[in-house]
Amino acid sequence: MGVGVSNWRLARAVSTQGQLGVISGTAMGVVMARSLQAGDPGGHYRRALEHFPVPSVAERILRNHYLAGGKSATAPFRLTALPTLTPGPALIELMVAGNFAEVWLTKEGHEGIVGVNLLEKIQLPTLPSLFGTMLAGVDYVLMGAGIPRAIPGALDRLSRGEPAELRMDVEDCGPGDAFDARFDPRTIFGGPSPALKRPLFLAIISSATLALTLARKSNGKVDGFVIEGPTAGGHNAPPRGPMQLNADGEPIYGARDVPELDKIRALGLPFWLAGSYATADRVEDALRLGAAGVQVGTAFAFCRESGIAPELKTRVLEMSRAGAASVFTDPVASPTGFPFKVLRMEETMSEASVYEGRTRVCDLGYLRRLYRKSDGNLGYRCPAEPVEDYVAKGGRREDTVGRKCVCNGLLGTIGLAQTLSDGTREPVLMTAGDDVADVARFLEPGNDSYGAQDVIARLLEKRSAAEGVTASMSPSGIPVSVPAT
Q1: Coil, helix or strand for 270?
Q2: pLDDT tens digit string along 61-86?
Q3: Separation of alpha carbons 472 and 478, rounded Å
Q4: Given its phi and psi angles, is residue 216 left (phi above 0), alpha (psi -120 to 50 degrees) or beta?
Q5: What is the helix, strand, coil percentage profile of the chain, to 5?
Q6: According to the model, what pLDDT value does residue 475 have?
Q7: Would you place residue 1 in the very low, low, confident or very high pLDDT band (cuts 50, 70, 90)?
Q8: If you ran DSSP here, which 8-state letter would residue 17 be given?
């Protein structure tokens, strides 16, 4: 669903309905910093920071970012440091506290379960982000867009207050090269870190092969899987085999991309199905196939509680009503190299004129790739950054064609776009699943919006208490099956 779409309001609305509400943990330090600079409407992040276990950290963040009344509309947001292998203390604190605050707000005042979703491809912020969610008592961690074999072990170590390491994916490396990101919880506390609850870990996958690999070769316990199909929003797994495109330029998925559920079932771990499962009939289909439930994203993305800017939600719902809402599975848009679902909408980066008219800049850096320089040191580059900069760092010019700044574009989706020197704002880039075409079905006659509760009621309308189980679904994350009461 993108950065900040499945925010604490949406995840809380789902969690309080007995489902697993899941926040997006991607770039939460940036989201909180910009929200504070916008005046922190409602005082929510300031309230969460009052409960951060290290008051001096919260005080520094507020001093550096909070602006009473908010910045002027024409002033730019103060930039945060770009993630690196050895981030400075201010960035570490921001990543930890941002994720803490989002989970804390989601869990405030109720006993529902809460999860966090992160991308394995965005490696540098992972450990401090995980630790921040664990400080707030997160119940589940979900991760896809890669092979997250090292995450279970990292959760084990962080729960014991011990330092954790992650091996980085680094381009241009030799066989003897190795680069690790390291996070020590004691850097936050200035001494021993408390023992924390170890959240359950669910890997987001697209094939039985990956499920088998993670179940057998991870460095800790994998507690289940989300099996996500290519119609889901955001990043999709690439098709198996050589990339082939259809006449419209989208990746072609075939029989090899259909997961072998019998092999996954044989592992004995619970799994959930994702990708166009936002109807009561599809929920029933999933349960008949042995799934514990379903994952739903797009239907929640356009409800009242989501983080998408209200005016954008209104436009999308109007398009859906008119039969004009659609997505393009772009094989090159994302700097990660994964296909990325782009919502077609005027005045956004889905239009060639908007994309080509944007001045390339890389001032957030969450999708930068690590590479080994000729001198053996580590460098950072992004195929969506200025072309000459990328080429000067050893990147191939052809890899920059069509690459979009997903970082800035997704922040624009939630109303936190950067203001540029000429007074304009970074253009929006929206993502959604194929289901966006019919998302207006959740609108009641005469209504222009709908809530998370409306989605849940519609999806569970064929379930009954007598069956002893409620199939659950969550935004941008995972559902769980919970006993009916």
Answers
A1: coil
A2: 999 999 999 999 889 999 999 999 99
A3: 8
A4: alpha
A5: 35, 15, 50
A6: 44
A7: low
A8: T
State the pairing for strand pair 271-274/224-228.
parallel
Question: Do strands 200-205 and 140-144 pair parallel, antiparallel, or not at all (unpaired)?
Answer: parallel
Cα 334 from chain centre: 14
Mean pLDDT for the stretch of residues 298-325: 95
pTM of the entire structure? 0.92
Give the rounded distance of the alpha carbon of 160 from its chain centre.
26
> pLDDT digits over 344-381, tens only?
999 999 999 999 999 999 999 999 999 999 888 999 99
Neighbours of 265 (CB within 10 A): 16
Give me the residue label for tokens 């989300």: 226
CB 141 within 8 A of CB 118: yes
Using one digit for the tens of pLDDT, what is the confidence trace for 181-230? 999 999 999 999 999 999 999 999 988 888 889 889 988 899 999 998 87
At what angle are helices 452-459 and 8-15 packed, to 10 degrees? 40
Structure tokens at 52: 């951060």
CA 127 – CA 116 distance, rounded (Å): 13
481: tokens are 């099956």
Contact 384, 393 (CB under 8 A): no
Q: 3-class SS at 453? A: helix
Q: In this structure, are residues 370 and 170 in contact, taking their beta carbons and an 8 Å threshold?
A: yes
Provide the 10 A C-beta neighbour count for residue 397.
Answer: 11
> Distance between CA 308 and CA 337 in Å, rounded?
25
Contacts with 318 (C-beta within 8 Å, 6 or more apart), sequence order: none
Map 275-300 to HEC letters: CCCCCHHHHHHHHHCCCCEEECCHHH
SS3 state of residue 183 = strand
CATH of domain 8-307+448-483: 3.20.20
**Structural domain boundaries of the chain?**
8-307+448-483
Helices (H), 123-237: 126-135, 151-159, 186-189, 208-217
Whether 478 has a pLDDT exceeding 90, the answer reads no
Decide: helix, strand or coil at residue 454.
helix
**Can you tell me the distance from the alpha carbon of 463 to that of 259, in angstroms, rounded to the nearest whole number?**
26
In contact, 464 and 472? CB cutoff 8 Å:
no
C-alpha triplet 58, 64, 66: angle, nearest 5°: 80
Residues near 261 by beta carbon (within 8 Å), at least 6 away in sequence? 208, 227, 271, 289, 290
**Cβ-Cβ contacts under 8 Å for 336 (sequence gap 6 or more):** 119, 121, 145, 235, 367
Identify which has the larger pLDDT, 353 or 423. 353
Q: In this structure, are strands 180-183 and 164-167 parallel, antiparallel, or unpaired?
A: antiparallel
The C-alpha atoms of residue 17 and residue 113 are separated, in whole angstroms, by: 10
